[in-house]
């Protein structure tokens, strides 16, 4: 909104030309989302407590101490993240950019689905929520609509092509298969983040790190000079997603203030599904879907641990981990919750640096 209004006044106020620059508006988006989160946090948490009463139902098959230590903590804290991201993005982004609307809408769509899932859990006092079939079907439909929109905005052949890291100017045209691939990326990222959200502060840290990384990637991919220098596929308009990613960074930092151990609120599926979808959709736009596997490697590790556990138990009757996802395995081994969280953040930072290094290693 500010991008459309303030630069027109730059002849009278030269400083307003700053609003033409994505980097300046990204910084503004980070600060705006952060301040909004901090200002609204206590009020949102108080509202969630009033409507939820006993808070989020705790898994009976999870670590035993969670039943006591986390009882009564409200969920759906992702509402705070979505409010901050939406307001900040609408304020600082170029609203004529189709990518911004596509990623923002898919973020809100997955957030609404997560809200419904959290609502069922709270009202029925059951940790299972919506049926798996219902949830995955809704996710696929929303991701498919986003994939079609992204491909349409990008045009041929870019819209249906896959970029391969470490190789310069390599674009593999997947044709209509690209839509299925994009759906897999968005849905997979969303659910991977959801699986990681199991300890206070565990998921939001890597979300902030990944959002920051993909804000940089989107900016570089959308800038003709930097894309040519780094030999990346140029995606005109993708740079504007740096503003949205910045909003997610700021909102995440603000949410972490209340989600740090011991958490005052859980993000719930409302936050984890929407943040994962935002990262997945941004990766699809910027043509860095495969790099998402590296930068979001912690999310991948959590998902793989669940798959390995389930497959091993069904085939052999034995469990590979003491409990899955893998963060619960370390809890069972006696690691303190803050120790697990901080060490996993360190892993996320290292993986983000490796992912960003692929921009130059070509």
N-to-C order of helices and strands: HHHHHHEEHHHHHHHHH
Largest sheet: 2 strands, antiparallel
Overall 3D geometry?
globular
Mean pLDDT: 91
Radius of gyration: 20 Å
Portion of residues within helices: 55-70%
Q: Which class do the helix and strand fractions yield?
A: mainly alpha
Low confidence ranges: none
Spatial arrangement of strands, main beta sheet: 1-2
The total tally of domains equals 1
Cα-to-Cα separation, first versus last residue: 37 Å
Helices and strands in order:
Elements: H1 2-5, H2 22-52, H3 66-69, H4 78-92, H5 98-124, H6 132-154, E1 161-163, E2 171-173, H7 177-196, H8 204-221, H9 224-230, H10 241-259, H11 268-286, H12 289-295, H13 297-316, H14 326-332, H15 337-357
Antiparallel strand pairs: 1-2
How would you portray this structure in words?
This protein is mainly α and 362 residues long. It has one domain. The chain is built from 15 helices and two strands. It has helices at residues 2-5, 22-52, 66-69, 78-92, 98-124, 132-154, 177-196, 204-221, 224-230, 241-259, 268-286, 289-295, 297-316, 326-332, 337-357; strands spanning 161-163, 171-173. The chain has a two-stranded antiparallel sheet. The longest helix has 31 residues, at 22-52.
């Amino acid at each position: 909104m500010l991008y459309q209004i303030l630069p027109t006044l730059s002849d009278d106020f030269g400083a307003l030309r700053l609003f033409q620059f994505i980097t300046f508006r990204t910084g503004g988006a980070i600060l705006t989302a952060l301040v909004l989160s901090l200002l609204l946090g206590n009020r949102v948490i108080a509202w969630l407590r009033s409507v939820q009463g006993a808070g989020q139902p705790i898994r009976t098959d999870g670590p035993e101490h969670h039943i006591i230590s986390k009882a009564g903590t409200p969920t759906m804290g992702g509402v705070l993240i979505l409010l901050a991201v939406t307001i900040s993005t609408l304020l600082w982004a170029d609203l004529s950019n189709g990518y911004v609307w596509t990623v923002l809408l898919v973020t809100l769509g997955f957030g609404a689905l997560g809200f419904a899932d959290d609502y069922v859990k709270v009202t029925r006092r059951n940790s299972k929520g919506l049926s798996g079939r219902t949830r995955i079907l809704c996710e696929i439909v929303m991701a498919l609509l986003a994939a079609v929109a992204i491909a349409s905005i990008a045009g041929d052949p870019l819209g249906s092509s896959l970029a391969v890291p470490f190789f310069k100017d390599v674009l593999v045209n997947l044709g209509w298969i690209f839509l299925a691939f994009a759906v897999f990326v968005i849905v997979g990222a969303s659910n991977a983040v959801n699986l990681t959200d199991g300890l206070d502060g565990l998921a939001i840290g890597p979300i902030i790190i990944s959002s920051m990384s993909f804000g940089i990637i989107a900016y570089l991919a959308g800038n003709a000079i930097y894309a040519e220098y780094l030999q990346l596929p140029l995606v005109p308009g993708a740079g504007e997603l740096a503003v949205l990613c910045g909003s997610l960074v700021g909102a995440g930092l603000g949410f972490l203030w209340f989600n740090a151990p011991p958490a005052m609120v859980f993000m719930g599926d409302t936050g984890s599904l929407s943040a994962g979808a935002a990262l997945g959709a941004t990766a699809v736009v910027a043509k860095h879907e495969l790099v998402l596997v590296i930068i979001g490697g912690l999310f991948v590790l959590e998902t793989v641990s669940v798959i390995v556990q389930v497959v091993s138990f069904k085939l052999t009757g034995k469990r590979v981990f003491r409990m899955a996802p893998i963060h619960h395995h370390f809890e069972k081994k006696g690691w303190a919750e803050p120790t697990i969280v901080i060490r996993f953040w360190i892993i996320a930072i290292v993986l983000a640096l490796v992912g960003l290094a692929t921009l130059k290693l070509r």
